[in-house]
Write a structure and sequence with these properties.
Nucleotidyltransferase, domain 5, 2 domains, 5-stranded mixed beta sheet, 14 helices, 22% strand
């Protein structure tokens, strides 16, 4: 099957679109691109996610607007890469999360009916609610795809995504799907991005290559204060998001240090919270850490992570999957499982009572 996966994470930068072929359970990445949101659209998404505006009409309007944006991403990806739209069998869309309360409720928008109608392709979306219905957290969902892509008979691996939120999937050597350990380790780029935006007065949305953090000095006292957050003591399964580590949380730290120092400290916070999660909640440190997500482009963050965990660090790029594309690829794989009738949540990761088939199918 030929499938396009669509993903927009908690950073709300834009739509990641990845086209893959699946044959004999092997995945080949054909094309990938990111289609950035306009500044106004991104602002609207973030404000809605922070619950600054949450009128029903605002949510409904943005839901339909994002449906158009997601559909356009599919069409643009195919046109740019000379892929005939008619050769696409299926679309898997994660949508845009605007609210997530683990084990209670969740809301992803980006109306899949519009995607299906504009592209003429069957679309599967809204993956999280079924897991919550089964008693799970509704996240993380990518461990199913991580198992498909990266399981190994001899090596233990941690697939570490660093998006707005950071999450890990631990695959012991020769593990089965039921053996997976996966959870959100805490903030990824979310706090760093917000601090950069404030420090540059809106001129930059992220720390390119970690250059600002590299110039700063880590403040140990503030770092310890950040690491005292109760989330880091909770045992998995667990997830977090903008509701816990969003603007309100970040803005409280902003003026405590000079700009370069606060960004360096926030970068260290992400690296050390990941390392602490491994040491506290994994049965052993992995032989290999496979990084993906936007945080992999932050050289200072990757360096700090390597200083705190002595495992070998690789990237999904080393396995033929662009590190920025990996999440979108994951939702293409999840859609494939859904249409084939394969249960695609991982109860050991989400806490669900049983394995279930996720997603809603829009013909």
């Amino acid at each position: 099957m030929r499938i396009i996966g669509l993903m927009s994470g908690t950073s709300a930068d834009g739509v990641d679109a990845a086209a893959i072929d699946i044959k004999n359970d092997k995945v080949k990445l054909l094309a990938f691109d990111t289609f950035n949101y306009s500044p106004a659209l991104r602002r609207n998404i973030l404000e809605l996610g922070e619950q600054k505006t949450c009128r029903p009409g605002d949510i409904s309007s943005l839901n339909f607007q994002l449906g158009e944006v997601f559909a356009d991403a599919v069409i643009k990806l195919c046109k740019k890469n000379k892929i005939n739209l008619k050769t696409i069998d299926l679309i898997g869309s994660h949508g845009q999360t605007i609210f997530h309360k683990p084990a209670c409720n969740t809301l992803q928008i980006g109306e899949p009916s519009i995607i299906a109608y504009k592209t003429g392709i069957t679309t599967i979306a809204d993956f999280r609610p079924k897991d919550i219905a089964a008693g799970g957290q509704g996240a993380p969902l990518v461990p199913f795809a991580d198992y498909w892509l990266f399981k190994n008979k001899k090596k233990s691996r941690a697939i570490q995504n660093i998006g707005g939120i950071a999450n890990v999937t631990y695959l012991a050597a020769n593990c089965k799907l039921k053996d997976i350990i996966a959870f959100d380790t805490g903030p990824g780029n979310m706090i760093i991005d917000r601090l950069v935006f404030l420090a540059t007065k809106g001129k930059q949305n992220f720390d390119r290559d970690g250059k600002i953090a590299a110039k700063g000095k880590i403040n140990i006292n503030l770092l310890n204060e950040m690491m005292s957050h109760p989330y880091f003591r909770r045992r998995p399964p667990k997830t977090t998001g903008r509701e816990m580590f969003g603007r309100k949380y970040t803005d409280a730290f902003y003026k405590k240090l000079p700009n370069e120092d606060i960004i360096a400290t926030a970068t260290a916070f992400t690296a050390i919270s990941i390392a602490a999660a491994y040491k506290k909640f994994l049965p052993r440190l992995p032989d290999e850490i496979i990084l993906c997500g936007g945080g992999t482009r932050n050289k200072t963050l990757v360096k700090m992570l390597g200083q705190n965990i002595k495992s070998k660090i690789l990237f999904t790029d080393d396995f033929g999957i662009n590190s920025d594309a990996k999440e979108a690829v994951s939702f293409a794989i999840l859609a494939y499982a859904t249409i084939k009738g394969i249960a695609n949540n991982v109860p050991s990761a989400t806490g669900a009572k049983k394995a279930v088939i996720l997603g809603k199918v829009i013909p």
